[in-house]
Amino acid sequence: MRIGLAGAGRIGARHAETLRDLPEVESVVIADVDAGRARALAGKHAARAASTVDELFASGLDGLVVAAATDAHAELVTRAVESGMPVFCEKPVAPDIVGTLQVMAAVQRAGSPVQIGFQRRFDAGHVAVRDAVATGRLGWLHTVRSCTLDPAPPPAGYIPVSGGIFRDCAVHDIDAVRFVTGRDVVQVVAVGANKGEDYFAESGDVDTGAALLTLDDGTIAIICETRYNAAGYDVRLEALGAKDSLVAGLNEHTPLTLADGDLLEDGTPYTGFLERFSDAYAAEMRVFLQVVDGRADSPCPPKEALEAFYVAEACERSRREARAVTIEEVRK
To answer: N or C: which end of the chain has fewer CB within 10 A?
Structure first.
């Protein structure tokens, strides 16, 4: 099959490498707003570069991977599904809820499958926790904890267009909580703080955030995020139940120093999400090819992304207004 790739940045480069190594893929066509960057990436992975998006869509594609800037996602996904093409799209579907609903309407009209890139759904640890919860091995859950701790903040220019730490970063933890528990979030209480660079506050954002989520069965979930975890990239999820507990992401790469000893294991911390979730990125792309081939339904349709977005929006509203916010408020 021939797969198109829109976007030649960090995540686009990761997907290009994965697609190159998958036997089902006969060719990859890459486009980017920077045509030179597309050519460079194509040359590195024996792919073909398209000079424009129009040329990309005219290349006889069987499926499209959207890894472009966030503000381009909605238009690319809509155009692809209206042409009958299956789409893989990195989160978010659109920068806001209204845009996401518009894309969902287009997807429903067209009937083409869309898979949203929440890669933690394909991480072996997160899948194992979900399976343990589903089988009742942990008993009833009382607490779920999930964190995303970045070793260093993104560039200052990224923050004003990021959507804020809850929509940009915490949305992965929110989706992970929903994925492993199989439950919906009904209420959030969120807080944030700024102790780092001034450009976070100048953009109305925070460099550290946390939220208490109440799930529809009464389970409590706690998520925390920061842009300043110099010890290393740290993503973990803990599910604590009446019978047992389980953690994903705790291994020799976890950047934790014991108060009464050395590192958890004398390993090297992950440098970032591309390294931490390397296997998950490959796994989700293999599944997408099954979706393209009609052998599988989308494992993460836009509706799932919308539900996570609602919760992230509620967290941001809660942080700004210093109050509990229900998800129903945001839906309205």
So the answer is: C
Q: Which of 86, 112, 138 is the last residue of a domain?
A: 112
CATH code (residue 163): 3.30.360.10
**Cα–Cα distances in angstroms (integers) from residue 124 to residues 50, 127, 138, 248, 277, in the given order:** 35, 5, 18, 8, 10
How remote is the C-alpha of 179 from its chain's centroid?
Answer: 12
Q: Print pLDDT tens along the chain (332 aa).
A: 999 999 999 999 999 999 999 999 999 999 999 999 999 999 999 999 999 999 999 999 999 999 999 889 999 999 999 999 999 999 999 988 999 999 999 999 999 999 999 999 999 999 999 999 999 999 999 999 999 999 999 999 999 989 999 999 999 999 999 999 999 999 999 999 999 999 999 999 999 999 999 999 999 999 999 999 999 999 999 999 999 999 999 999 999 888 877 655 567 899 999 999 999 999 999 999 999 999 999 999 999 999 999 999 999 999 999 999 999 999 97
